[in-house]
Amino acid sequence: MTARGRRDSVATPTRQKRSKRNRLAAFVPLGILVVAWLAAACTSSIAADRATGEQGAGAEPALTSGSTTTFELPTPSTTSTTLGSASRPFYRSPPLTAPGTTLTPVNPTVLAFVAPASSGQFVTATSEGQVAGRGPLQTYRVEVETTLDFDVAEFAEIVDRTLRSPRSWIGDGSISLQRVASGANLRIVLATPDTTDRLCAPLRTNNYFSCRSGDDVVINASRWANATTAWQSSIDDYRAYVINHEVGHFLGYGHVGCPKAGALAPVMMQQTKSIGACSPNSWVYPGR
Question: Which residues of 93-127 are buried (b: 16+ CB within 10 A; e: fewer)?
Fold first, then answer.
């Protein structure tokens, strides 16, 4: 073999290695693009999960503006509790309408509600109610956040009247209910929108929805004052509905849909979002 042939035989593997490196280098930009695309897709998917669906919603409709009310705190004789942990099991409803929709009260005489600052402090109804129903006993206590202009005794009376009705959950004889001042199985609170968000976290109630979070039923004061544009009945009926609906989640019941056009909406239908082809209904057993 000539000297040139020997040089060529030695140089050939070197050129092959260099060519292989060049080919690999050509794929590096493509690989970077693929990784970037996958990262963007994952980020978009996570954002979509947080923005839609049963357990996360995007920005919600703005509340109707109105005259600021004077907030009178309940009497000092009631007991006070502090906002607890927000990391508990949860439920929430999907969005009612598209973001930016202006809500108006169901009834023009309803309180023109402007949400006050969150205090995270609650007053508890100190009296106890009678046992209603025949089944195993579930106890509940009732609280109102201190910065709200809603009387805790009045709120407790509405809750009691709703849950003691034979049209509510006691109607089939499977449970009994009693309001107590302490040591309850369930806490039913009326809270500012900001506090509702904290108590319902990690759910995104977005200052708008109510929820059941662990052993808490949290009623958003904005909905308590004004219901929703989807609700085509009285404010009193909406209040009975939202109590029965959220307590139903505490008792283990999930969502259902409208059974047929013209039927009464089941109480576990998401009537805060939409009534659809059904008629509004506040009760578990409306015929009783």
Answer: bbbbeeeeeebebbeeebbebebbebbbebbbbee
- The predicted pLDDT at position 120 comes to 93
Cα–Cα distance for residue pair 262/276, rounded to 1 Å: 9
CB 103 within 8 A of CB 65: no
Q: How confident is the model at residue 94 (pLDDT cuts 50, 70, 90)?
A: very low
- To the question of pTM greater than 0.70 for the whole model, the response is no
Nearest to 83 by CA among 143, 19, 1: 143
Give burial (CB, 10 Å; 0-12/13-18/19+) of 187.
buried
- The DSSP line for 167-180 is TSGGGGSS-EEEE-
Could you tell me if 276 and 231 are in contact, meaning their C-beta atoms sit under 8 angstroms apart?
Answer: no
pLDDT, residue 34, reads 52
| Count of CB atoms situated within 10 Å of the CB of 203 | 25
SS3 212: strand
Helix, strand, coil share (%) of the chain residues, nearest 5 = 35, 15, 55
Three-state DSSP state, 284? coil
Strand spans (E) along the chain: 79-82, 121-124, 132-133, 137-145, 176-179, 186-191, 211-213, 216-220
Name the percent of the chain lying above pLDDT 70: 61
State whether residue 26 is helix, strand or coil. Answer: helix
Cis peptide before 280 (omega within 30 of 0): no
